[in-house]
């Protein structure tokens, strides 16, 4: 007889509960004990694993949301840097525009006749500066005398009563304003009517 077939009389025979007919010869109390022991520890373990899974899923979803928010923030920051990054340089270039405009406005007819080539060069320089501004999203805000004062685009430098005007009408334009895309780079400086009647 082989050693595997020999049974020790002092050993209890183990039941393989994975076999379909294994519990047929076992009494009901033993089956209840096996079920209680197996189910309690297994249920606890399953509940622990479910709790860990839910915790990990929650952490994963939060990390995913944080990553998405970071991506959106960096995209927005990149777009803003692209659009508005040159605002300091643009603001520094506005006095150059103002001075070229003043030079043209100050020239009399006699000076225009004598120095037409010089003034034409200044006009071309001013036009080229405006073209460069346009390429970079810088647009002039040019109010007209008689327009209504808009505090979003204009800066009132003085108020004066002027006949035949309404309160809040622009009566003089001192400097043009500029927008950089949709942001105000510099307000137009204007004089405003203070008529009350």
Provide the CATH superfamily of the largest domain.
Head domain of nucleotide exchange factor GrpE
Low-confidence stretches: none
| Percentage of residues in DSSP E strands | 15-25%
CATH topological fold name of the largest domain: Nucleotide Exchange Factor Grpe, Chain A, domain 2
Q: So what's the CATH class of the largest domain?
A: Mainly Beta
Shape: elongated
H/E series, N to C? HHHHEEEEEE
Key words describing this protein structure:
52% helix, single chain, elongated, three-stranded antiparallel β-sheet, 2 domains, 4 helices, Nucleotide Exchange Factor Grpe, Chain A, domain 2, alpha+beta, three-stranded mixed β-sheet, 197 residues
Describe this structure in words.
- Residues 1-25, 65-87 are annotated as: Disordered.
- It is found in: Cytoplasm.
- Its main location: cytoplasm.
- By secondary structure, the protein is α+β, with helices and mostly antiparallel strands.
- The protein folds into two domains: 17-84; 87-193, Head domain of nucleotide exchange factor GrpE (Nucleotide Exchange Factor Grpe, Chain A, domain 2).
- 52% of the residues lie in helices and 16% in strands.
- The chain is built from four helices and six strands, in the order H-H-H-H-E-E-E-E-E-E.
- The protein has helices spanning 28-84, 87-106, 109-114, 116-135, and strands at residues 138-141, 154-160, 170-175, 177-180, 183-186, 188-193.
- The strands form two sheets. It has a three-stranded antiparallel beta sheet with strand order 1-4-5. A three-stranded mixed beta sheet has the order 2-6-3, with no helix packed on it.
- A hairpin with a 2-residue loop joins strand 4 (177-180) and strand 5.
- Helix 2 packs antiparallel against helix 4.
- The longest helix has 57 residues, at 28-84.
- It is elongated, with a radius of gyration of 43 Å.
- The mean pLDDT is 84.
């Amino acid at each position: 007889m082989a050693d595997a077939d020999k049974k020790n009389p002092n050993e209890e025979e183990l039941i393989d509960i994975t076999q379909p007919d294994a519990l047929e010869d076992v009494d009901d109390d033993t089956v209840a004990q096996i079920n209680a022991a197996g189910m309690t520890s297994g249920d606890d373990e399953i509940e622990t694993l479910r709790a860990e899974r839910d915790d990990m899923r929650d952490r994963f979803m939060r990390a995913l949301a944080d990553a998405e928010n970071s991506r959106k923030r960096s995209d927005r920051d990149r777009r803003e840097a692209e659009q508005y990054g040159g605002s300091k340089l643009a603001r520094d270039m506005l006095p150059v525009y103002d001075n070229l405009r003043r030079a043209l406005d100050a020239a009399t007819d006699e000076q225009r006749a004598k120095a037409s080539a010089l003034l034409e060069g200044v006009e071309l320089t001013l036009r080229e500066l405006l073209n460069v501004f346009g390429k970079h999203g810088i647009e002039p805000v040019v109010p007209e005398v008689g327009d209504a004062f808009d505090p979003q685009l204009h800066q009132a430098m003085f108020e004066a009563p002027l006949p035949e005007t309404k309160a809040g009408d622009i009566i003089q334009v001192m400097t043009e304003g500029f927008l950089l895309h949709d942001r105000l780079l510099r307000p137009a400086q204007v004089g405003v009517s203070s008529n009350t009647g």
